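Thread: Newbie trying to understand structure tokens

Hi all, I'm a second-year student working on a class project, and my supervisor (Dr. K.) asked me to get a predicted structure for one chain before our next meeting. I've only ever worked with sequences, so writing a 3D structure as a token string is new to me. If someone could post the tokens and maybe explain what I'm looking at, I'd be very grateful. Here's the chain:
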Amino acid sequence: MARVLVTGMSGTGKTTVLDELRRRGWMAIDTDYDGWVGADGRWDESRMDQLLADEPDVIVSGTVENQGRFYDRFEHVVLISAPIDVLIDRVSRRTNNPYGRTAEQQAEIAEYARTVEPLLRRGATAELDGRKPVGELADLIEALQTR
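---
Reply by user tm_fold:
Sure, no problem. This is what the structure looks like when written as tokens:
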């Protein structure tokens, strides 16, 4: 078993893939929800430390400034990426998260894709194309989880 971090820009499908992995029985934590991220936009480090100490096989999703501090505790860091037009289309249509509906937020996403995604790519051990079907992405992450 392994600890896997799934990261990427808003709209790549991280939440949707985690929902599928949970449906398949995996412990999957989406840190966009349930208080994992503080007002400063960073993971609650003590809470993340505890999760990773307690769970030898967990899939965690998130994109935060301090995630690199935890990379050595994950066997795999998976970047899900997609072209900016796909990201903007998805965030403008989703119903589970209001972020990305305004022109300002969409410009922010495009800027993050230009500036942050390359940093995520450097720390990733695998990169997946977020345009693939959800089931296929889940299969690929599941395969990493069981290696």
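A couple of things are worth pointing out once you decode it. The domain at 4-145 is CATH 3.40.50.300 (Rossmann fold). Helices lie at 14-23, 45-54, 84-93, 103-115, 117-123, 134-145. Feel free to ask follow-ups in this thread.
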